[in-house]
Specification:
The protein is an alpha/beta fold and 318 residues long. It folds into 2 domains: 34-181, Nitrogenase molybdenum iron protein domain (Rossmann fold), CATH 3.40.50; 190-314, Rossmann fold, CATH 3.40.50.1980. The chain contains 14 helices and 13 strands. The strands form 4 sheets. A 5-stranded parallel sheet has the order 5-4-3-6-7, sandwiched between helices. The chain has a 4-stranded parallel sheet with strand order 10-8-12-13. A two-stranded antiparallel ribbon has the order 1-2. It is elongated and about 65 Å long. It starts with a helix and ends in an 8-residue tail after the last helix. The model is unreliable at 6-10 and 13-32 (pLDDT under 50).
Length: 318
């Protein structure tokens, strides 16, 4: 056979072989990266969880966890997530297109759907979702429960998700970004007079020392009138509010305020509330509850919106 023909034949065979190998490679299921030393962590529920391989198929059953996964570059590994009215367009598009399977909503997660997705990691919130997380643990699924307890707790949870997914650097970068923005707001307001702030979501229900609302008020340069109350939530009274006499009233605007009919006009109409400084000076504002009551990616926007209300002079909004 002609030498040139032999070379051509060999070249064709080599190209075909590479092509076949490539197709076979692409058709292989994704392989988890096995760790030389397994990672053992204690999650927000106090459970000890060991990670031997970084996950390739992640199900989030809490919207805030879904948002963190996207923020640190893990969107391609999410196979299931709950529906939520306030997702970014990117997350919503992934759910609408079926790229990510809906597993229910925050309060009603479909156990069957989650299991059918064969996840190697499930991320859950604590509290209300803990019973659902425990169900998955009973089914021998790897579950990490997050707490999102306040601003600091939220940042800790970002770091924890980064640790168990191999995205430590991306998580650290996201945390630094949030901390930097929050610190910039604090620096602008730290030397200013701190107004007394009362936040309500209806029927005189408010927030105590352990709430994320209390923490955000402080970071925004204000003082929660119920900062000395232990716990997250409390029900107050007209007498207590008159005694505290807040400079500013914030309505946590959302589902609960709508249910109770809590609006600026409703507050102004309450008996004796016309004696309050906030009412006299028309310092009553509505702020989206998703910005100030939920520890999530919008938490800095919540701090900024509060700071602009408390100190308009510092943010050129007066």
């Amino acid at each position: 056979m002609n030498k040139k023909i032999i070379i051509v034949v060999i070249s064709i065979i080599a190209i075909i072989s590479v092509g076949i190998a490539g197709v076979l490679y692409l058709n292989q299921p994704p392989q988890s990266e096995e760790l030389e030393t397994p990672i053992t962590i204690q999650d927000g529920a106090g459970y000890t969880v060991t990670i031997s391989e970084y996950p390739e198929r992640i199900v989030s059953i809490a919207p805030s966890c879904t948002e963190i996964l996207f923020a640190i570059g893990l969107e391609d590994k999410i196979v299931g997530a709950p529906i939520y009215d306030h997702y970014s367009a990117e997350i919503q598009d992934a759910l609408d297109s079926g790229e990510i399977t809906s597993v229910g909503d925050f309060q009603t997660i479909s156990i069957e759907t989650v299991v059918s997705l064969d996840p190697d990691l499930i991320l859950s919130k604590g509290g209300f979702q803990l019973s659902t997380a425990n169900r998955f643990i009973e089914l021998e699924k790897t579950v990490v429960v997050l707490t999102h307890s306040g601003f600091t707790g939220y940042l800790d949870d970002i770091s924890l998700i980064g640790q168990v997914t191999g995205q430590d650097d991306e998580a650290a970068e996201f945390v630094a970004e949030i901390e930097g923005e929050a610190q910039m707001i604090e620096d602008k307001t730290k030397d200013l007079v701190k107004p007394k702030v009362y936040v309500e979501y209806g029927a005189m229900n408010s927030y105590g020392a352990e709430s994320v609302v209390n923490e955000l008020i402080t970071k925004a340069g204000g003082t929660n009138v119920f900062a000395d109350f232990d716990g997250q939530y409390l029900t107050t009274s007209t007498e207590e509010i008159l005694n505290e006499n807040p400079d500013i009233i914030i309505i946590s605007s959302g589902v609960m305020s709508s249910y109770y009919g809590c609006t600026p006009d409703e507050i102004k109409s309450r008996e004796s509330w016309d004696l309050l400084s906030a009412v006299i000076n028309d310092e009553i504002y509505e702020v989206d509850e998703n910005l100030i009551t939920v520890a999530g990616p919008d938490i800095v926007d919540g701090i900024k919106e509060l700071a602009q209300i408390f100190h308009p002079e510092a943010f050129n909004t007066s």
